[in-house]
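pls read this protein.

:::
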Amino acid sequence: MDTNESISQVEINKGIIQRYFEAYNNKNEAIFDEIISPNYIDHGQSAYMGSPGLGVSGAKNDLKYSLDKLDELSYFVEELIASPNYPDLVGAYWKGTLTPKATLLTLIKLWRKLITEE
């Protein structure tokens, strides 16, 4: 493989990973139509769906699930690491902040705690 070609592929793949996080930060599932392969497998969905998410619909499902459970979510990519020797592999060092949605039960517990502290 030509070194210049692999370097450009590395940058393309880093851009795809950056766009993935942008989809979450902007709550924009349409980004997945641009970047997700039909062969995409999200194994993380197995924890809450019982099976992995597949393809574009799997990525969109994960975002919808996150938005259903969270009031706010924000991801910051600190570093993307890739090598021309393995242009298909991109490592991401990221941090995130998540604010769960308040449920009636959590609000009642909070209210009881505030009442008993007085």
Observations:
- Helices lie at 3-25, 30-35, 46-49, 55-69, 104-117.
- The first strand starts at residue 41 and ends at 42.
- The chain has five helices and four strands.
